[in-house]
Amino acid sequence: MNNTIIKKKICLIGAFGVGKTSLVQRFVYNRFDESYLSTIGVRVAQKDIEAEGEGRTLRMLIWDIEGYEAGNPIVKNYYLGAAGGILVGDVSRPDTFSDLSRLLSQFKTINPQAVTVFAANKIDLIPDISTVSTMLKKTEEDLDSRLFLTSAKDGSNVEQLFFFLNERLNRLS
Fold first, then answer.
1. Fewer C-beta neighbours within 10 Å, C or N terminus of the chain?
2. Which residues contact 135 (CB under 8 A, 6 or more apart)?
3. Which of 83, 90, 106 is nearest to 139 (CA)?
4. Could you give the CA distance from residue 19 to residue 68 in angstroms, rounded to a whole number?
5. Any alpha helices (H) in the chain, and if so which ranges?
């Protein structure tokens, strides 16, 4: 049986240092690097996920976009043609969640049909997640995107995040 490959562009969206690159590294290569190197421009990684019993594969082209700068027109160009977006905030820096609604609006203006999910990353740094749960619930509602509590460091919910997005994208194909 022929296996059809469907390519979908996914953008990771969020502030500098929230762990976008680390999430991609954990998902695609199953690795984590403690050293922080800020992404300049964009890095593209890919991972194929087979749709069981459907004879097709979804190739996720994951665009790791540099942390946003207000009004940066280049970042908007990176969004073009995206089928999905992962909004990323850092639970150890609650201020990183405050601008996600604006970034989502910008992303959806360019890609109105895109599927989005919300990653509250670095949960390994918070001993008691209940301290930020109210803020996370409000952000999840504001973004109208499913929340995943993730840790690129220990791998918590990283696969679940990408597989959920894959499942949603497969329904649209």
1. N
2. 94, 97
3. 90
4. 13
5. 20-29, 73-79, 100-110, 133-143, 158-172
Confidence (pTM): 0.90
According to DSSP, the β-strands at 56-65 and 84-90 are: unpaired
pLDDT digit string, tens, across residues 134-160: 889 989 898 889 999 999 999 999 999
User: How many independent structural domains does the chain possess?
Assistant: 1
Pairing of strands 4-14, 84-90: parallel
Q: Where are the alpha helices (DSSP H) in 67-115?
A: 73-79, 100-110
Q: What are phi and psi of 137, to 5 degrees?
A: -65, -45
What's the CA gap between 100 and 88, in Å, rounded?
Answer: 8
DSSP helix/strand/coil, 40: coil
pLDDT at 71 over 80: no
Looking at residue 56, which CATH number applies to its domain? 3.40.50.300
